[in-house]
Amino acid sequence: MSEALGLLAACLSSLLGGSAVAATRWSVAGIEPLTLAALRYGIAALCLAPLAVRATRRLRSPQDAAAAIALALLFFALFPWLFTLSLAHTTAARGSLALTTLPLLTYALSVMLGREAPSRRRLAGIALAMAGVALGLSSRLAGGGLTGDLLMVAAAAVGAAYNVLSKPIIQRLGALPFTGLGLAIGAAALIAADPGIGAATQLPGTQWMAVLYLGVVGCALTFALWSVGLQYAPPALVALTVALNPIASAALAALMLGEPVTPGMAAGFMLVVAGLVVASGLGFRRPAVP
After folding, report:
1. Which member of 49, 136, 189, 234 has the greatest number of CB atoms within 10 A?
2. Tens of pLDDT along 267-281?
């Protein structure tokens, strides 16, 4: 499989992720955030259960098992809870825009831990993207929206920690098997922590359709495509595709929820994309000499 196909998988993952933000925002109106996260990840875990079984066979030591459990609880339990809770307090477009800080926070943590050397180009890209986030949110920071925005940035920080710390265990277990195992562990933790999970049986059919979409498409398929992208394309290029998330989210939110997309948010999206392009080095590479 070529790098181009890996990038295509990552782009599809980010576009589906944007649709999941809009669907979560629509669903959360009638479901407790923790319950929605538990249902979504529980459905995804069932979809990828065969991969989870394969991952357990590759665990070679108690240290591997402990690392897998800790990372799974971080990214597949804490992250979805923060993500869903955020969208109970902010709009889909704003939440998706705040989530685009994920690759920037990943890079910053990598530098802090000595995993990657700092560069002026990447710092310039970070500045551009953060300016885009600020511009996109500037006209709508009043009221309760700021709480949701900060919760989504916290979710992005959790995701960044996972991105940096999970590489060794993913290399040992495989990207897709570890994703299946992580979803199983995270879903079990979310279901155990939710005393109101039984109320899900009272949801109307239309909301169950949204929950099934979130579990199968917005979680299982999205994470599987993201793992394929990371397997075949450079991580910086894969992270760049997160910029597609707010575009898909804003388009769907406008259709499904009637949420406005202001000129400031549109300009913010463009600055985020420009910042991620600069930070990743796209467009700055010299062509290979034949």
Report:
1. 136
2. 877 887 787 778 766
- What gap in Å lies between CA 73 and CA 85, rounded to an integer? 17
CA 47/CA 59 separation, integer angstroms: 21
The full 3-state SS of 73-140, as one line of letters, equals HHHHHHHHHHHHHHCCCCCHHHHHHHHCCHHHHHHHHHHHCCCCCCCHHHHHHHHHHHHHHHHHHHCC
Q: Using one digit for the tens of pLDDT, what is the confidence trace for 67-112?
A: 999 999 999 989 988 988 887 888 766 777 788 788 888 888 888 8
At 240, phi and psi to the nearest 5? -60, -35
Q: What is the pTM of this model?
A: 0.78
- Cβ distance 176 to 224 under 8 Å? yes
What's the CA gap between 161 and 81, in Å, rounded? Answer: 16
- Which of 152-156, 159-163, 178-182 has the least mean pLDDT? 159-163
